[in-house]
């Protein structure tokens, strides 16, 4: 399995012989307005793509955790081939169809696509009233013959649905959306270090990849902060914090860190 972080939550997976683009945000730097009510007022995305857009369009499928603009922006909707299969949560099916995509597949609970199985999981985009205001989000467990099992948590904090997913599926690798994204009021709506640590403590033999960092204006926790805390807790062999464009390779038998 190959996992290449592109930027923010955009990841290119090579799994089961298929290339899957996850949560494509393809706009050039500064093309979008900042997230309102955030302490950082810079325009988004904060950084450029590490690869050309053209290099990201030749994929076998697209997987969406949800359709907030930092996970599926106008540029992605415009540039992606309209016949590419798009897998999404039920609440986003209509929106993706309306954008002209001809092969939209809602994942209610479980969906088999060739040799790959997608299992949709729950999450909580913040806590309390904030989570309700942010709307539904999903994660996915991805299984393929001969590959380590992969959990993409999506925009969630540590919460009972995440814990239940780790208990039930015991993934070999988890991709966590970090950055402690937040507004001027309320707590983080994506994972902060304490959430990442809870995930690590839950499954002691699981590898963790933290993304969703330093590319959107409301994400306040930085890679350097995460790496320092990771090292202080003796978790440098388990937690990867890749740079934009970095490729992680996980062997088919025993997964290793990037």
Automatic annotation (TrEMBL):
Keywords: Hydrolase. This is MBL fold metallo-hydrolase. Residues 19-212 form the Metallo-beta-lactamase domain. Gene3D superfamilies: Ribonuclease Z/Hydroxyacylglutathione hydrolase-like. It comes from the Bacteria. PANTHER family: L-ASCORBATE-6-PHOSPHATE LACTONASE ULAG-RELATED (PTHR43546:SF9), UPF0173 METAL-DEPENDENT HYDROLASE MJ1163-RELATED (PTHR43546). GO terms for molecular function: hydrolase activity.
